[in-house]
Amino acid sequence: MPAWRGIRAAKEFPPICPQRLYSPEYYAGISARVEGRILPQRPLTTSEDCLYLSIWTSNFGSADRRPVMVWIHGGGNNGGWGTQGTDNGEFLARQGVVLVMIEYRVGALGFIADSALTAESPHHSSGNYGLLDQIAALRWVQRNIAAFGGDPTRVTAFGQSSGALDVTCLMVSPLARGLFQRAISESGACTGPFAALKEPVTDHLAAEDSGRQLAKALGISGSTNVVAAMRSRSADEIVNVMSQNYGIAHEVNVDGWVIPEQPDKVLNEGRQLSVPLIVGSNADEFRTLAGSFPVASMAGYSEQLLGALGNSALLRAFVPRLLATYPASDTAEAQRRLFELNNDGFGSGARYVVRVMAKAGQPNVYFYYFTHVIPTPGGRALGAFHTGEIPFVFGSDMGWPKGPGDLALRNAISSYWVQFAATGNPNRRGLPEWPKYEPASDRYLELGDTIRVGSKLRQRQYDLLDDAQSALDARLSH
After folding, report:
1. pLDDT in tens, 11-32
2. Is 250 an annotated catalytic residue?
3. pTM for this predicted structure
4. Could you tell me the CATH number of the domain that includes residue 246?
5. Does residue 51 form part of some domain?
6. Domain for residue 207, yes or no?
7. Would residue 465 count as lying in a domain?
8. Active-site annotation holds for 386
9. Residue of 54, 173, 386, 389 marked catalytic
């Protein structure tokens, strides 16, 4: 790649990593409901030369070192970019942090495993390239962030959705040890099971099967050197093939190197990176994720409930509890209950992580529940949707009319996040107290029109999903 000497003219954002870019029409329904804009309006270009960091600082030339926040974007590890949802990190930077937004490979280029790639690797591993990009970015921060006024001993890795999943996966990766000292996970957690590199795990095929499926879709499965044939194809070709064959898996896998073991096993045994942690979810995560969601059917309702848990074969014994916890008497109610179950998957995953961290002896663990609804008539239908907290974290343009409640909540959430980055504890004078998470009291902080402490959030539902997770973990340990 071309290098530069002296000061780089940072006049534009970097290209984003190769991915399918959806047209504005794809988001029209959501945008109409919130009566504002959902997507950044700057032009986007993709390039394989995409591994850049965007940095905001107001601390050049100062002797003091400020806490650093490294943002890992969401997008299902299939798309997204660092500044998605906010094109301006100035608000957080002016509150006293150095903000870093990173790019990493996504989709097939970031997460496809293949036996030939495994064979050529000195670590006998493939896939998880996106995680390796994130680790490389965190290493860069350790080496260089002091030049931007940042403190490499106070780095917070924070992310949303798949970025949150990745943050918690980095907590179980030995390659990420020492690279960050705090973590924030918004609407995502590294709870499994995940595909293993060479063997099927529950309903997951072996991760290397995804490489074989991609080779077949590209029409090169008969090649004597499949990897060379893959590398001869352009990134755009691979992205287009993947968009037409969405069933080809591209996800974090247990590769024996980046992720040596099932994350649940590491978490349950308390062997993860023990750092102060904030984890939470939004009340209506699934409202904006339901585009590909199947229509409920009373005839197949129990199977759809099992499908929402991700493993119908091993969890069939949970059908009676599922039907009792998410009862439905007609199709409309079944649809609502399926949405509810999928929402609870986010919340129970968050609670699972804070519980195992607290039980492992990490004292500074905090649990939140975001409930704020956009103050527009159309926004009420979306509720506290997936990604809805991001503008409140970054203080960015929300894309809808802001009322006093929006501004107060923005100031509170961003202040909690910045204080946590600075000290490992989000509490400071002028903010409602946020109690540390303890499994016995099961307390959380509701971030909504009123900021208040609650306890035992959706306890019956989360306990059911915890028990299902434990049943899967027990089966995998044998």
Report:
1. 788 898 999 876 544 444 454 4
2. no
3. 0.93
4. 3.40.50.1820
5. yes
6. yes
7. yes
8. yes
9. 386
